[in-house]
Design goal:
Elements lengths: L16 H4 L2 E6 L2 E6 H4 L9 H14 L23 H9 L19 H16 L7 H11 L13 H14 L3
Antiparallel strand pairs: 1-2
């Protein structure tokens, strides 16, 4: 007799009621996964890309009213995002300097995200809200802060998976009180 296993995967996001309506069931024998349409592919990603992270940050921060706390600072769009599936999200987070382009004007949306990069992003967002004008060593302070608050685990140069990013962004939104 063959047994089925049920894996309950919670939507790791700061969801709105509107997003919750889009929940569907996907069957992977012998596992049943309940997830939102937008998050289904992200749960399977082994090394999250900058474009995927931009999408997660944009959707979660927009739905929770966090994105509007960041004024538009850049009007220039990264050179390499035209036609990318996450182009709109990349533009929204890039123009607010949440995720920035590199000095050459490219965003590199398909490059994988490492733990230390996620720590810096969260630290910048937190400091923009809580301590504008922060002038410490962002590279060292962000890592210590992110470890202390549970936003990263593993080594600095470990890649972040899609499931980890969804969970960490959810924790971060809760940390911010949203």
């Amino acid at each position: 007799m063959r047994k089925s296993f049920i894996l309950a995967v919670f939507i790791f996001s700061c969801s709105t009621a509107e997003e919750i309506k889009s929940v569907k069931t996907i069957r992977f024998l012998p596992v049943i996964v309940r997830t939102s349409n937008q998050d289904a592919f992200l749960l399977q990603v082994e090394a999250l890309s900058r474009g995927e992270l931009a999408y997660i940050l944009d959707t979660r921060m927009s739905s929770r009213g966090i994105l509007v706390l960041f004024p538009i600072k850049n009007s220039g769009e990264p050179r390499d995002i035209s036609g990318h599936w996450a182009e709109k999200s990349i533009s929204r987070v890039s123009e607010r300097s949440i995720l920035s382009s590199f000095p050459d004007g490219c965003f590199y949306p398909d490059d994988p995200v490492k733990n230390f990069q996620l720590a810096i992003i969260f630290f910048r967002i937190f400091n923009e809200i809580a301590f504008p004008g922060y002038s410490g060593d962002i590279y060292m302070d962000s890592w210590d802060w992110a470890l202390e608050n549970g936003f990263v685990s593993g080594g600095r140069n470990d890649y972040v998976s899609g499931a980890e990013a969804l969970e960490r962004v959810k924790l971060f939104c809760e940390y911010l009180g949203n």
